[in-house]
């Protein structure tokens, strides 16, 4: 399989997990050039075509070239789709190699990571986003698009404001992607849903739809109250009832799906609990707000991960 071309494609994608593989496939199918940046340890390994199953069930073999950190200088746009806990370490080898003008786009669950990336790349345009697309990873370089969702991108720093075109180009591949100058609000909305759905499904090993049953009613209600308290302290006009409705709607719309945290636990991988509930706990502590149900879930998932 080819490595990087002399004329690099528009997108360099870092992180070929379930969602990264699906995004790479959709971008490729939309006619936009994509390359996958992989670890140096994979230089001598076979890099097969991506086996991609679309929403309509059709299968496609896509030849997407790979590249390495040493190719960072030819990157035009860097789309980072690793798990939250892997973002900083994945980007560290690019320090001093990635051009200062190159926009870095972070698409991961949770919050609190962009601040650390900004410290590593203080001059680069930095963008953050949220997406609700569903994805599953099968075997090696095998991906399935399991659900069409919404994607929102916005600036994390001032330099990022100049790159609204990125949302338009993503929309060509995803069907919908929009620019939002107030992206932190959408990040918090996504965080709240993740705080309510992911730990419960991972701890009790149930699919999302199970959360709509009476078994989880009290826990979800308490979680929504705690989340509303913290989000209000952060300056957002939300209510516990509103957060509960959103979480239940997502659970019902994705009833047959396994949350990413459940998938990680079942595969024996580390979860994103630190960037999701861990971030909430940090902000709650900052504001002096008690969040006992979120804390108990955090401790339970963290212990089981260990």
Radius of gyration computed on alpha carbons: 19 Å
Q: For this structure, what is the CATH class of the largest domain?
A: Alpha Beta
> Could you name the CATH topology of the largest domain?
Rossmann fold
In spatial order, strands of the major sheet run 5-2-1-6-7-8-11-12
What is the end-to-end distance? 38 Å
Family: Belongs to the ketopantoate reductase family.
Protein name: 2-dehydropantoate 2-reductase
Organism: Aeromonas diversa CDC 2478-85
Enzyme class: oxidoreductase
Short précis:
With 306 residues, the protein is of the alpha/beta class.
Write the layout of secondary structure elements.
Elements: E1 11-14, H1 18-29, E2 34-37, E3 50-53, E4 59-62, E5 66-67, E6 77-80, H2 87-91, E7 104-107, H3 114-120, E8 126-131, E9 134-137, E10 142-147, E11 151-155, H4 165-174, E12 178-179, H5 183-204, H6 217-233, H7 240-253, H8 260-266, H9 277-287, H10 292-305
Parallel strand pairs: 1-2, 1-6, 2-5, 3-10, 6-7, 7-8, 11-12
Antiparallel strand pairs: 3-4, 8-11, 9-10
Helix pairs in contact: 1-4, 5-6, 5-7, 5-8, 5-10, 6-7, 6-9, 9-10
